[in-house]
Design goal:
mainly alpha
Length: about 100
C-alpha cells in the first residue's frame, strides 16, 4: 500500500509539474508579443520552467526509476490537457465557410 501511495503522489506531482511547465510556456508565448525584449523572456522562461521541472523529477524519484516513470507519465498527461485547453478554437464545418476559404 505504501508503494501505491508513493506512485500516486508521483503521478499527481508529474501532472502539477506538467501544468506549471506547459502553462508557463503558453503564458510566455502570449506575453512575448507585447514585451520589449522577447528573446530574454523566452530564455528566462525556459530556464525557470526547466529548473522547476527537473528539480521536481529529481526529488519525487528519490532514486526509484518507477516513481520517475510515473511522474513523467503525469507530465505527459498534463501536456495533453494543456494542449487541448489552449489549442486553436475548433473550426465550424459549414458550406459557406469552405467556399469562401479557397478558390474553385
Amino acid at each position: 500500500m505504501n508503494e501505491t501511495m508513493s506512485l500516486g503522489s508521483a503521478l499527481v506531482t508529474g501532472v502539477l509539474l506538467g501544468l506549471m511547465f506547459f502553462g508557463g510556456l503558453w503564458w510566455t508565448v502570449r506575453k512575448i508579443v507585447s514585451v520589449r525584449h522577447p528573446a530574454f523572456w523566452v530564455f528566462a522562461s525556459l530556464m525557470l520552467r526547466m529548473t522547476f521541472a527537473l528539480a521536481g523529477f529529481y526529488f519525487i524519484s528519490d532514486g526509484h526509476w518507477e516513481r520517475l516513470l510515473v511522474c513523467l507519465l503525469g507530465f505527459f498527461i498534463a501536456r495533453l490537457a494543456v494542449t487541448r485547453l489552449t489549442g486553436p478554437p475548433a473550426q465550424q464545418d459549414n458550406a459557406s465557410g469552405k467556399e469562401a476559404g479557397h478558390a474553385a
